[in-house]
Amino acid sequence: MERIAMSQKERDWLDWLKRARDQKMTQREAAERMGVSERWVRKLLRRMKRQGDAVVVHGLRGRASNRKLAAKTQKQAMVILREPDWHDFGPTFAAEQLAKLHQIHVGKETLRGWMIEAGMWQPGSRKIHEVHGWRPRRSAFGELVQWDTSEHDWLEGRGPVRYLVRLIDDATSWSWGRFVERDATPFNMAVLWEYIERNGRMVDVYTDRDSMFTVARRKGESEEERKAADRLTQLGRSLRELGIGSILANSPQAKGRVERSFLTAQDRLVKQLRLAKVSSIEAANAFLEKEYWPEWNACFARPVEAFSNLHRPLSQAQDLAAILCHAEDRVIGNDYTFSFSGQRYQIQREHVQAGMRRQRLRVELRLDGELKARYQGRYLTIAECGARVAAPPAVLRKPPRKDHNAGGKSAWMQGFFDRPAPALWKLIREGK
Questions:
Q1: Pairwise CA distance, residues 328 & 335, whole Å
Q2: Could you tell me the sign of the dihedral formed by the alpha carbons of 217, 221, 225, 228, in that order?
Q3: Sign of dihedral through CA atoms 297, 303, 305, 309?
Q4: Residue 412, SS3 per DSSP
Q5: In contact, 375 and 364? CB cutoff 8 Å
Q6: Which of 4, 130, 140 is nearest to 62 (CA)?
Q7: For residue 142, which of 197, 194, 201, 193 has the smallest C-alpha distance?
Q8: What pLDDT, in 10s, does the model give residues 332-343?
């Protein structure tokens, strides 16, 4: 006798059909129990005479699906996945890149099965890691932007690209960033400059406590005293002048959105740069702008059009070149010069005015290397002075004799007042 595998639902259907066949219940009652029409129950009863109990089993069971991919497609996909550049691709990302680069459209679960069968993917058990309570997202685009840098070998040794500066919106996950030479203040300022030109000024930024963003407490200083002192870094000053608030995170988990996005980038972006044969920082930034950010924002970010936009345009008084720079205050000397970075600069005669001596002016070293000096809101024309004349070196003198006049025992004055002197009248005559 043939064994027929059935589900519980199919066994229940067979029971209702047999009862209707044996007239233990009406066809209407059987249809209500089965959730189908009376017409379908009558059709199944007619088939039951020919097929027996197998009438409740779907006719396609055990047959290949009409939507099954051709063996040729599977072979093409597996040949590509065995190439060296694809050795560490997972099923999900591999399915995306096969469709994008080779027009091979395969579902990620289908591809997962192929890779497991070929020994190219090892399914792992899901483990519950340490859970951190999630902070709710902000409600508007530009209300809070998380800002961080990831150090990683992005080109896998093909070029000196190690630092990715990223800004990600807290409400939408919309992202922008650049590869930079160093994780230093000027390069972070340049990335912020591009973000503001694209979107405007955000309300707040959320950063870590790196020395670029905050000044550490001095020895024996409390947190309240540090805040009262109001010492700012160059980036802190720039944010204040732009009217952007700064929130400092107390742990990496606090800014988890940007931290998790770096984990995704260290997997996906590294592989995409490998497939694109990128080997320089210029080409890597071009790939970010044209390929990666549009793809990321389309796949992982929420539509920014669905959120209110709190980005603000720059005011007429705000000049990015004058704000995003290294700025210091200097004192004007009596000769109308000031010093900066070990060099002396002269204020040109046409910009000298009364009362300028011993006053402060602002010196700005721009990101393009240009040096500007501003006094009372007006930029001055300056020029480098010649090198300062060094003070003459101190004359080296011989050390005094340690035995000279030791203890006041010198005898050269002895008998000086005992010598005979000429008469006074004789001295007067000689003086005439």
A1: 20
A2: negative
A3: negative
A4: coil
A5: no
A6: 4
A7: 201
A8: 999 999 999 889
Cα gap 92→94, rounded to integer Å: 5
> Which tokens in the block code for residue 352?
């000298």
Question: How many CB atoms are closer than 10 A to CB 416?
Answer: 7
Contact 367, 321 (CB under 8 A): yes
Tokens matching residue 305: 């059009």
The letter for the amino acid at 43 is: K
Tokens of 294: 């549009």
Separation of alpha carbons 432 and 418, rounded Å: 27
Q: How far is the C-alpha of 222 from the C-alpha of 73, rounded, in Å? A: 67
25-81 pLDDT, tens per residue? Answer: 999 999 999 899 999 999 999 988 888 888 888 777 777 777 778 888 888 899 999
Amino acid at the residue 84 = P
Please tell me the pTM assigned to this model: 0.69
The dihedral region occupied by 54, where left means phi > 0, alpha psi between -120 and 50, and beta the remainder, is alpha
Task: Tell me the DSSP string of 121-150.
Answer: ------------PPPPPPSSBTSEEEEEEE
For residue 201, give the DSSP letter.
B
Closest to 188 measured CA to CA, from 168, 153, 212: 212
Please count the CA atoms within 13 angstroms of the CA of 91 that sit on its side-chain side: 19
β-sheet with 382-384: strand ranges across: 337-340, 343-347, 382-384
- In sequence order, which residues have a C-beta less than 8 Å from that of residue 215 and are 6 or more positions away? 226, 231, 232, 233, 236
- For residue 407, give the 3-state DSSP assignment: helix
Eight-state DSSP code of residue 171: T
Strand ordering across the sheet containing 360-365 = 326-331, 360-365, 371-375, 378-380
Integer CA distances (angstroms), 216 to 212, 224, 238, 251, in order: 10, 12, 18, 16
Q: What is the mean pLDDT of each run of 10 residues along the chain (432 residues)?
A: 76 89 91 91 90 80 76 89 90 91 91 88 72 79 95 93 95 95 94 96 93 86 80 93 92 84 93 94 95 93 94 93 95 93 92 91 94 94 75 68 59 66 63 53
